């Protein structure tokens, strides 16, 4: 249990609760949920430029990382087809992957196919079910993909001014503006209460908020004096109480709850908003192909990690379809912007390719 780990090392409740947020990020779980301690470990186990547990911003936004990977690939002769939806994986008579078919009818032939899509899309939508073992299909269908995350992107005409650390007179970003700011986590019980509300189909009345201001580090993201604020919030259920789906009214009502909370910490924040983009779990699934809106392609619970990710006997990146490999967050070691699953999958694919 996360609580036991934090109680062993720390006394301050606000510090424990702030650390606890990284144990439930992206997870429909409470700090009191068994196994939550691993998710915290997962978020701090890596290092950046020699600093263990450090995180970094990508200059130009997260899309710049994808562009860097694309440029590295094209420089070595790869062809990148953007905005081309894959319809299904092409299979030979022996059931081996032979490429992909695009929705526009184009067929791209290949000896190997690596899928960075979720296990659900890869195996339940792009492959005929009769080509897969029944127990494997059942396992993929049973993966827990519940997600509590609603992502809100906000454009503001001035830097947020927090009561706890007022802005400088010149309006320039201070060190805390360049960090991850955690709100509504003065006590671990607040996170548990927010989680409990969502399990009953109600968006948290006092949501956990992780607030970042990327433009404080990367001024090119916004016009002079203005900023973009990224809000990673939870808990929000995929389906609201009574079986209701998210509509514009419920989206805006939840966003207003989040903004009211921020206003308590930084008066004037609501008045500074000039644009907002609200992405609930169903929106994240529809737009980005994240199953259930889950940023990790599936819960990072202990029963869905290591040798069991995405399914027992298939944690080594190979799939039941010869020549088809899984290289995204749904593969070992799971989610996070680290590239480990992709690198490991590439090594396995290269090894197999030498024997073709």
TrEMBL record:
InterPro entries: Amino_oxidase, FAD/NAD-bd_sf
Keyword annotations of the record: FAD, Flavoprotein
Principal place of residence: mitochondrion
GO MF terms, alphabetically ordered: oxidoreductase activity
GO annotation, cellular component aspect: mitochondrial matrix
Subunit structure: Interacts with COX5B; this interaction may contribute to localize PYROXD2 to the inner face of the inner mitochondrial membrane.
Function: Probable oxidoreductase that may play a role as regulator of mitochondrial function.
Name assigned to this protein: Pyridine nucleotide-disulfide oxidoreductase domain-containing protein 2
The organism's taxonomic lineage, starting at the top: Eukaryota, Metazoa, Chordata, Craniata, Vertebrata
């Amino acid at each position: 249990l996360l609580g036991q780990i934090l109680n062993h090392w720390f006394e301050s409740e606000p510090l424990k609760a702030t650390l606890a947020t990284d144990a439930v990020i992206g997870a429909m779980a409470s700090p009191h949920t068994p196994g939550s301690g691993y998710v915290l470990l997962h978020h701090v186990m890596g290092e950046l430029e020699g600093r263990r547990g450090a995180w970094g911003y990508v200059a130009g936004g997260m899309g710049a990382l994808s562009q860097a990977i694309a440029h590295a690939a094209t420089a070595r002769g790869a062809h990148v087809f953007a905005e081309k939806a894959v319809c299904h994986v092409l299979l030979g008579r022996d059931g081996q992957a032979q490429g992909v078919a695009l929705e526009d009818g184009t067929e791209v032939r290949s000896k190997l196919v690596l899928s960075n899509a979720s296990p659900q899309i890869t195996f339940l939508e792009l492959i005929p079910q009769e080509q897969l073992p029944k127990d494997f299909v059942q396992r993929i269908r049973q993966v827990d993909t519940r997600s509590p995350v609603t992502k809100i992107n906000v454009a503001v005409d001035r830097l947020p001014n927090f009561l706890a650390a007022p802005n400088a007179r010149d309006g320039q970003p201070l060190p805390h503006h360049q960090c991850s700011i955690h709100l509504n986590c003065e006590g671990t019980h607040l996170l548990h209460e927010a989680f409990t509300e969502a399990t009953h189909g109600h968006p948290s009345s006092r949501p956990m908020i992780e607030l970042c201001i990327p433009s404080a580090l990367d001024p090119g993201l916004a016009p002079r004096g203005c900023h973009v604020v990224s809000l990673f919030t939870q808990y929000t259920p995929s389906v609201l109480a009574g079986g209701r789906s998210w509509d514009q009214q419920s989206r805006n009502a939840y966003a207003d709850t989040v903004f009211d909370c921020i206003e308590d910490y930084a008066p004037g924040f609501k008045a500074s908003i000039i644009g907002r983009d609200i992405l609930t779990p169903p929106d994240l699934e529809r737009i980005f192909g994240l199953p259930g809106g889950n940023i990790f392609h599936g819960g990072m619970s202990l029963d869905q990690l290591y040798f069991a990710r995405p399914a027992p006997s298939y944690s080594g990146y190979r799939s039941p379809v010869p020549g088809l490999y899984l290289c995204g967050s749904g593969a070992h070691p799971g989610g996070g912007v680290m590239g480990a699953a992709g690198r490991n999958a590439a090594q396995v694919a290269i090894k197999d390719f030498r024997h073709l």
